[in-house]
Amino acid sequence: MKRFAFAFEEMRASPETVFLLGNKGAQLAEMTSIGLPVPFGFTISTDACREFFAAKGQWPSGLKEQVREKIASLEKKAGKQFGSRENPLLVSVRSGSYVSMPGMMDTVLNLGLNDETVRGLATQTGNERMAFDSYRRFIHMFADVVMGVKHELFEEAIAELKHSVNAKSDTDLSTGQLQQLVDRYKAIVTEFAGQSFPSDAWAQLEMAVSAVFRSWYNERAIKYREINNLRHDAGTGVTVQSMVFGNMGNDSATGVCFTRNPSTGAKEFFGEFLINAQGEDVVAGIRTPQPIQELEKFIPSAYLELVRIQALLETHYKDLQDIEFTVEHGKLFMLQTRAGKRTAQAAVRVAVDMVNERLISREEALLLVKAEQLDKLLHKQLDPEAKKKALVIARGLPASPGAAVGQVVFSARKVAELFKKDKNAQLILVRTETSPEDIEGMHLAKGILTARGGLTSHAAVVARGMGKCCVAGSNDIMVEEKNKKFKAGDLNIMELEWVSLDGSAGEVYLGQLPVSDPTFSKDFEILMSWADKVRRLKVRANADTPVDARKAREFGAQGIGLCRTEHMFFEKGRIKAVREMIVAPDKEGRLKALAKLLPFQKGDFKALFKEMNGLPVVIRLLDPPLHEFLPKSKKQLLDLAEEMDVPYKKLRRVVKGLHECNPMLGHRGCRLGLTYPEINEMQCRAVFEAALECEAEGFRPLPEIEVPLVGFANELVETRKVIERIARETGVEGKVHYKIGTMIELPRACVTADEIAPHADFFSFGTNDLTQTTLGFSRDDVGKFVPIFLQQGILSKDPFQVIDREGVGKLMHTCIEKGRSVKPSLEVGICGEHGGEAESVMFCHELGLDYVSCSPFRIPIARLAAAQAVILEAKAIDGIGVVKPVASLSPVAEP
Amino acid sequence: MKRFAFAFEEMRASPETVFLLGNKGAQLAEMTSIGLPVPFGFTISTDACREFFAAKGQWPSGLKEQVREKIASLEKKAGKQFGSRENPLLVSVRSGSYVSMPGMMDTVLNLGLNDETVRGLATQTGNERMAFDSYRRFIHMFADVVMGVKHELFEEAIAELKHSVNAKSDTDLSTGQLQQLVDRYKAIVTEFAGQSFPSDAWAQLEMAVSAVFRSWYNERAIKYREINNLRHDAGTGVTVQSMVFGNMGNDSATGVCFTRNPSTGAKEFFGEFLINAQGEDVVAGIRTPQPIQELEKFIPSAYLELVRIQALLETHYKDLQDIEFTVEHGKLFMLQTRAGKRTAQAAVRVAVDMVNERLISREEALLLVKAEQLDKLLHKQLDPEAKKKALVIARGLPASPGAAVGQVVFSARKVAELFKKDKNAQLILVRTETSPEDIEGMHLAKGILTARGGLTSHAAVVARGMGKCCVAGSNDIMVEEKNKKFKAGDLNIMELEWVSLDGSAGEVYLGQLPVSDPTFSKDFEILMSWADKVRRLKVRANADTPVDARKAREFGAQGIGLCRTEHMFFEKGRIKAVREMIVAPDKEGRLKALAKLLPFQKGDFKALFKEMNGLPVVIRLLDPPLHEFLPKSKKQLLDLAEEMDVPYKKLRRVVKGLHECNPMLGHRGCRLGLTYPEINEMQCRAVFEAALECEAEGFRPLPEIEVPLVGFANELVETRKVIERIARETGVEGKVHYKIGTMIELPRACVTADEIAPHADFFSFGTNDLTQTTLGFSRDDVGKFVPIFLQQGILSKDPFQVIDREGVGKLMHTCIEKGRSVKPSLEVGICGEHGGEAESVMFCHELGLDYVSCSPFRIPIARLAAAQAVILEAKAIDGIGVVKPVASLSPVAEP
C-alpha cells in the first residue's frame, strides 16, 4: 500500500521530502531528527492531496488507516488518548506546501475537544477556564475553516456576551461565561452550517484534513501562487501534531522570531511573543506582543534555550530562519522553522554577511537571494506600510514597475505647461490611451496611467523604455479629458488631485503615499561581482536611447541586445517625416521623407555607439506595421491632415489601406524592408555612417544589424544583400567590424534554422512574438482567458512572464540544434522580455545561449539568475528548484 | 569544368534531363535519339541560367567556350559556317523550362543573318526574296526580344511601306522592297535602342542567349508560374538549333498538330499548317492555317511521314503529343514534341481511351490527368472564348470557384423581393461586405461580389460552403448602395445591369457571358473508380449542412471531416439567439439563449447524420471569436439594439468589450468553451440527442466531436470532461459509438503532441490556422507582401494554397511522430483547405495521414491525387514531380 502518513522522526528534510510533505512537515521532521524539542506529530503527504483532488474529494485508499495508526502512535508517546474524556490528546491540523504560503491555507488548533474531552483537558491542566477557552476557540476555528460558517457570527456572539456582562477583554470572561459561549457557538453552527457541530474526535479530524486539502484551491491561495509563480498542481501536505499550550498561565507563552532582522538583514535576534496565549493571538493582534528579548525576564530558562536553538538552526540550515515556538509551563517547544521571508535589502545583506562569517560559500550566498526580488532594489517603491492603510481606487496592468506620486493631469500639453512653470512639479499623466504626440508629456510626468491598452500598448512600451512607472489598461477608470477628471467607481478625481501609482502591482492609490528610493548597497555590489565571476551567460540590455544605454552600462550590461529603431521614430521632429514616408504615393516620395530621417537616426546611433564604446550594439531594422505611426481617431486625423497639408480623405484612405485584421501577423518585420527596401537602406546607411564617424573620433563601435520576423531563409538572404550593398557603398567594410543576424520569432524559423543559419552571424530569440505564434496567444488579447486558465490550472504559469519550456522551449531547442548543426560558431541570444525573468534566464543557460538581453532595470536580476543557473547545474537541480513534475489535477467543488 | 551545353544526340529525356535542359531540349534530344528527323542542335542547361542570375547577368565561366564548340560541331554536321557570307549557318534560339510555359518566354529565329550572310542565304537557297524576308523578320524579332525595341515600330514601318507600294499582303512585297525594309528596320533599331543592330553573328548569339535567360523573369512568365504553381527558381534552358525553312516555296510548310483532339480527347489526328511559312506565321494568325489533313494534297510524302511519326511519338511517350514540324523542300523536320495541353474533359477521355487501347496501364492513366484540372469539371465555367472578347471591369479574390451570370442587386432584401416575383431571377448580390443578415439573399443569388474582405471573409466562407461563385475583396469597385450602383473605374454599373463572375479567377465581366455546365462523363466515373481502388488515403468532406453533405456523398466522400457548427449559427432564427447569448450579462442569461439554440442544432445534426448514415461526422465545437456574430457599423448596431430591445449603449459596450487586436490569436477555439462551458454543453447535448434519435429511427450515426485550437493538453482534458459528462447525462454511452479528438492548429500542439494524444481519439490538422501561426502570416493580411514575395522568388508557392512542406510540414511530421509514439492507433486527418489541393494531398499521403477532408467540390481532386500519391510513391518520385531542389536565385535588372 502507498504510504501517505509519515511520523516526524521517520524523515529528514530534503528537496524530495519538502515536495512530498510540504516545507512545514519536512522541517518539523528535521528538527525532531536533530534533537530539538518538537511536539510529537506526523504529516500527510502532498501525494494524498493530489489523489484527493483526482478522486473528486475522496480520501485515497489506505489514508484513513494510516492516520489512525499514526494517531495511535502519538497517543503512546504522549501518554494521552484521542477523544478520551479522561486524558484527551488534542492535535493541531496544519497545511504546508513545498513553498511556504503563509496564511494562504487553513489551520485548525485544539482538535479533539468536545463536551466530554473538555472536562478531561480541565483535569489534565488543572485549569478549567483554559479548557473552555480552548474549546470555544476550537469551535469558532473549526466552524469557520471546515464548515464554512462565517467568522463574524462568532465574533458578534462574543462581543454581545462581553457587552452583556460588561467584560472589557476576552480574559475577563469567567469559566461559566465561556461555557455559555460554547453553547451559543454550537447553536450558531447548527443554524448556519445546516448540521450540528461534530463531537466525535475522529470525525473532526477527517473533516479538518479534507478542509486543509481543499484550502489548496481557495481563492487567495490560487492568487498567491499566481503572483509568486508557484505550481498549482503541487498540493498541500497536512501536519497533525499534538497540541502544546502557551495559554497555561504566566509560565507559558507563544511567539515568532527570526534569527536576523528580516527588514534590514542585521545580525540580531529578532521577534516577539505573548505570555499566556496561543499562536493565533500573536497573529490576530488583539494583544500587543513584546520584543523577544523581554522573554528573558518572564521565563529565563526558556529564553536561553530559545537563543541557543535559534543560533543552532541558523547554522544548521545556513540561512535566516523564521521560527515559531510555544512555552508550556516553562518548557520550550519548537513548532516551526523555515527560511525567513526578508526584504530584498535584507536578503543581500544576509547573504554577504554569512559569507563574511564563513557560514556559507559564495555560491551558497548567491542562491540565498531570489533574483526576482532584486527588482525591488532597482525601482522606487511605495511604502508597504502606507499601502496597507491607503485606498486602492483602481487596478490595471503592471505595465512598468516602480512607484510614482503626483498630481493628475489629463493632457501631455498641460503636463508640459505646468512643468514649465515649476521644474519640480510632480505630475501623473492620465489618458484613455497614449499616442506618439504624448511622448514629451510622458517624459516630464512622474508616472503614467491609462484606461485602455495592454502590456504592449504604446504607453506600456514607452514607459518601460523610459524606466518610468506605468499602470496601463485600467478598466476601473473612465477618463473625461474634457471635464478634467477621471472616474474610478463612484469617485471623481479632478485635475491636480494627488494619486500614487504602484507600477509593479498595477495599483492606483488615492493621495500622496511615502516612497522609498532605490538603493545600491555596497553588499549589493559585492554580490553582483560574485555572480559575474560565476555566470557563463552574458547579459545585454534592451535599450533604444543613449540615456537607457548609460543606465544599462551602470547596471552591468555587456552590450545592447536590442535597439528598437522605431522607438526613435516616435520622437518629436521625426514622427512627421515618418508619416510623410508612409503617406508618400511612390518610392520617390518615400526616399525624400527618409532622407529627412537619416540624420536623426545617424545621430541616435552615434550617441549609442559612444555610450557602448567597445561593446556590441544590436540594431533591429524597422519592425512594427506602419499604421502604428499614424493616429486613429477622426479628430487626430483631421489635425494631422492639416498639419501635413494633405487632404483628409487621402489620409483616411492611407489609414484604411494600412488596416489589418491581425497586425501581429501582418505587414511588418522584414516584410516591410523587403517591400520597401529604401527603409532598410536608410537605416543601414545611418548605422554605417555613424559607426565610421565614431571610429574616426577614436571610439570602437560594434554594430550588429538584426533582421526581424524572418520565417524563410530567402527573406534573410535578400535583406542581407541590401545591407551588404550599403556597407560597400558607405565604405564601412574593413574599417568597422559588423555582424548581420536575425531575430527568431516564428515557429517556421525554428524548424528551418539550418536553412537560415548559413546566412546569419547571430540569432536572437524574440520570445514575445515566438510565444504569441507558438501558442496562438495574442498578448494584447489574452486577458479574457489566460487568468481563467491559470486559475483552473490549465496553465501553470503565464507564458508571457516565464518561458513556456514545453512548447516555446522545445522550438528554441530545435532552433539552436539545427542552427549550430550547420554553423557551430553561431552566436545565440534572447531579447524578448523573458530575458530579464529569472526562471527563463536559467532556461536560457540550460539551452546554451550566449547571452540574454533585457531592460536595463532587470540586468542585475539576469546577472544573478545566470550565476544561479551555473550553481544549480553543478548541483544537478533543475531551474525551478526542488520540484519534480506530477500529474496535473484540478480543483473540485466544495461538497 | 562544369558542362553547360549538351548536343541533342548526347542526351535522352528523363526527369533529370527535363529539369536540366528544360522540356523542349530534353524532348528534342529524345526524338533525335529515337531516329526522328530533327535539325541538329544543342541545349544550354538551366544550371547556366541559374548561375547567370546568381552572377547578376554574367555568363558562367566556360559557357562561352562550350557554345563555340557546339556551334563548330553544328557547322560540321550541317556543312555550313556560322557567320559565313558564302554558306551561312542560321540558328534558332529558344527557351524551355522544366514545365512547358507556352509563349511566356522569348524565341529568336534566323539568327546569324546580317548584310553579308543574307547574300549567302540567297545563294544557298536560290531564293533571294526569301533571304531578305527572313532577314527583315530576324531584325524585327531580335530587336524586339533582345534589344527591347517596340514591336509596333516595325509593324508601322511595314504597313507604311505596303501602303506606299499598294501591297495587300506581306507576300506582295518584292525583294527590293524587302531590302528597303531591312534598312528602315535597322534605322529604327539605331534610333530606339541607342545602339546599332549587331552584325556579328557571335554577338547576336550571345545577346540572344542572355535575353532568353532574362525572359525567365519577365512579367508574364512570373505571372504564369504563379498561376500554375511552378517554381520561380528553376530557370530556363536555351535550345540552339540549325534553322530549317518552311518558307522555301510551295514544297515547304510549317505546322502544329496533336495526336488526339485536345478539346474533346477524341482519337483523331488534329492540327493545322501553312504552306510556305515560318512557325511564327501560324501563331500570329496573319494567314489562316488549313486543317492538317489538307497537307496530304500539297506534300503527300511529308504528310504520310508526319502521320507515321505522330503515331510513333504517342506510342513512345504514351501520351497525347503536341508536335511542331516544318517541311523544307518536301523534307519533314520535327521541331518539338511535348505532352499536349488539353481540357479536363479531354484529359479524362484520353486517359480512359488509352487504357482501353492497351497503350497504358490504369496507373499510368491516373497520372495522365492533373488532379487540379478536375476542378473545371465540377463547376460551371464561363466560356473561355467569350471571356477573351469580354471586358473585365474588376478583379478581386477568387473566393469561391465557378461562374455566375446575373443582374446586380445591392441588398439581400432586394434579392429576396425580386426572387419572390420571379423564381428564375438570375441575380448577383453586390455588397461592400456581407454579414449574417445577408445569408438568405446570398442563398438566392447566383453569385456574390464584395468590395472588401479576404479569402476568409464572411462572404467567402459562406459562398464556398454553399458552393456558390464568389469574387471577394475587389478593390476595383466601390459600392454605393444608396444610389443603387457600383463604380468600377469610370464605369457605373446600375441595379439590374448584367455582369458575369468568374469565381475561379476572381474576375468580373460586363454583360452576360455564355456558361458551360459541369459534366460528369462515364469516363470520369471510370477514372474515379480506378483511383479509389489505388488510393490509401480516405477522403472526407468539409460540410456544414445536409445539402452539402448530400453533395459530398455524390462526389464520393467517406464521411464528414469538418462540420463547422458556427455556420449553423448564422442562419435565420438562430443568429438572434446567438446574439442574446453574447449580450447576456451572466451564465443564467447565456443558458436561456442556448436553450433556444439547442433544438436548431439538434435538428441540423440529425439531418447530417441521416445524410451520412454509417459514415463518420466530425463536429467541431464553436470556434470563432464571438464578435463575429455581431454587426460592426453603428447603424446595424442601432437596428439590432432596437430588435433585441437592449440599450444601444449596452450593445456598443459588448461589441467594444469583444474587440481584439489580433482576433486570430484571441478568445476563440477551445478557449471559448473553457471560459463558457455552457456553450460546449449545449452543442454536445445537441450532438448526442440527435445521434440517439437517429439511432432510434434505424440510422447509424458516428459522431466525432472535435475540440478546436488546442495548444495545451490540459485544454483538451478539461473540455473532454465536459463532453463525457454530457455523454453520460444524455445516456449515449453504449448506444452510439462516438469519438473525441482535437484539431491541430498551433505549433505548440505539434511539439507537445505526445502530451495531447493520450486524451484524443483523433487529430485533425487545421492547416489554415497552422500555416498562419507557423509562418506568422495572417491570411487576411498577406495581400501586401505574399504576391511580392512570390514575384521575388522569396516564396516559391503560396503557402495557403500548397502546404509549406519545409515549415508547416515539418511540424506536422513532428506531431504525427510524437502523437503516434504514445498512441499508435491515433487517427490523423486534415481539414484545412489544403486537404483538397492535389500537391498537399500527396504530401498528406507521404506523412501517413488516414484521411483528407475538403469542400465537396474538391473531393474528386483529392481522390485522384491520393491515388497518384500511391503510384508516384511506388515509382519513388516525389510528389512535386520531377523537380530536385536547387539553390535559390533572384531576378537581376535588365542591363
UniProtKB/TrEMBL annotation, chains A, B:
Keywords: ATP-binding, Kinase, Magnesium, Metal-binding, Nucleotide-binding, Pyruvate, Transferase. The keyword Cell inner membrane does not apply. It holds the Pfam family PEP-utilizers. InterPro entries: ATP_grasp_subdomain_1 (IPR013815), PEP-util_enz_mobile_dom (IPR008279), PEP_util_AS (IPR018274), PEP_util_C (IPR000121), PEP_util_CS (IPR023151), Phosphohistidine_dom_sf (IPR036637), PPDK_AMP/ATP-bd (IPR002192), Pyruvate_phosphate_dikinase (IPR010121). Residues 427-506 form the PEP-utilising enzyme mobile domain. Its cofactor is Mg(2+). Mg(2+) binds at residues 745, 769. Residues 523-869 form the PEP-utilising enzyme C-terminal domain. GO terms for molecular function: ATP binding; kinase activity; metal ion binding; pyruvate, phosphate dikinase activity. It is an enzyme of class 2 (transferase). Residues 58-292, 303-357 form the Pyruvate phosphate dikinase AMP/ATP-binding domain. Its EC number is 2.7.9.1. Belongs to the PEP-utilizing enzyme family. PANTHER family: PHOSPHOENOLPYRUVATE DIKINASE-RELATED, PYRUVATE, PHOSPHATE DIKINASE 1, CHLOROPLASTIC. This is pyruvate, phosphate dikinase. It comes from Candidatus Iainarchaeum sp.
